Amino acid sequence: xxxxxxxxxxxxxxxxxxxxxxxxxxxxxxxxxxxxxxxxxxxxxxxxxxxxxxxxxxxxxxxxxxxxxxxxxxxxxxxxxxxxxxxxxxxxxxxxxxxxxxxxxxxxxxxxxxxxxxxxxxxxxxxxxxxxxxxxxxxxxxxxxxxxxxxxxxxxxxxxxxxxxxxxxxxxxxxxxxxxxxxxxxxxxxxxxxxxxxxxxxxxxxxxxxxxxxxxxxxxxxxxxxxxxxxxxxxxxxxxxxxxxxxxxxxxxxxxxxxxxxxxxxxxxxxxxxxxxxxxxxxxxxxxxxxxxxxxxxxxxxxxxxxxxxxxxxxxxxxxxxxxxxxxxxxxxxxxxxxxxxxxxxxxxxxxxxxxxxxxxxxxxxxxxxxxxxxxxxxxxxxxxxxxxxxxxxxxxxxxxxxxxxxxxxxxxxxxxxxxxxxxxxxxxxxxxxxxxxxxxxxxxxxxxxxxxxxxxxxxxxxxxxxxxxxxxxxxxxxxxxxxxxxxxxxxxxxxxx
Length: 498
Known about the structure:
54% of the residues lie in helices and 1% in strands. It has 21 helices and two strands. Helix 11 (297-310) packs across helix 12. It is mostly helical. It has helices spanning 42-54, 56-59, 67-83, 99-110, 148-166, 186-193, 202-209, 220-238, 245-260, 271-287, 297-310, 329-349, 359-375, 377-385, 390-399, 408-420, 424-439, 441-446, 450-457, 467-484, 488-492; strands at 2-3, 6-7. The protein has a two-stranded antiparallel ribbon.
């Protein structure tokens, strides 16, 4: 085969020609001449031929390497590297990381599609009937063995308040006494939503808690109509630019990531749904050039999408297997627009997780490490003694908000609390991560080496998690926040003061 008149055949062990270089291709080792370009000057050819002859032994396939010497040299390099290892809080971050290094780091640390194999995990995953992906909470807190009636009565009263507030008419008073007519008391709403939201009320509650829907009921319909039209205006204005040179890389990465998303849930494998996600993520990316699209952001759309889609699906139908094409086009467009605005609100609160060098994630990983050194010292020492860096497992926890660690139905229930908690995604999540790590303290300490600890951390047995586990997790996180929130010295001692 030839290109521009040059032969591209090569002998194993020989140097291959590099097209576009300043010198003509090399002659083959056998000495057979290679066609020369008539416009090539002889002087550079002679110089390069001399250079080739002087180093020809480096390309000669007949040269035999001393394997013993090579292994000894490699061992010496590794020993020198180990001796110079600096036990810092986090692996060093380049002062000026490139775009490619950032992408590669996110792929390595945050994007793991399947759990690692574990001896304690059943391998017959496909034989297990998949659980529903949308949590329903009519029996919330009734598992309290000591006071079952108390828990049931408490939740019944809370649910009734939520129904009155979220289903109130425009002219009714949805707040406390003294609130303006039609104005929802957001503090009371947050309190009532913190322990979980009934599934029928969740779409409206999430819109309110995200700041997408105004608390004044008289402005709801006008605001929703305006924001939904604004989203589709963005789609009309910008989506056609996805194939432009300066946006093509962004869209290509989105297009690659979406089919990999939730591969075991049929809902997300539908072409129509994937096209909706492409529009949501692309429009968000070009409107936020400081960060752009980063792998992992696609996961954060899925809870909103499932919640808003459930609003149009009969109660007896499982969301995870529903054919979205059965819905009218108008309803599909509402789900897409609402998902866009709510995930935008979430990402605005944690955007420093995805900007240049990910300062938000770096800060959260450091805080988690200091927090664990105080609330579970034995586990912290065990991780350090086995050379387990917090960044190696908690980067994904921060980047994907634990979505890769717990099932989607548990994530949606957890987000009830995150949305009800002020700064839930940006601050409270860190305490949830600490509580989550403490949950597995005994199991982790029973692992005696780095490999065992990391396999467990990346394949935690949370497949059956539901409301009860999330309630326990958030309660523990709340207790940690009550002790440490605002007491920055507890989380920064050990660091040099600025």
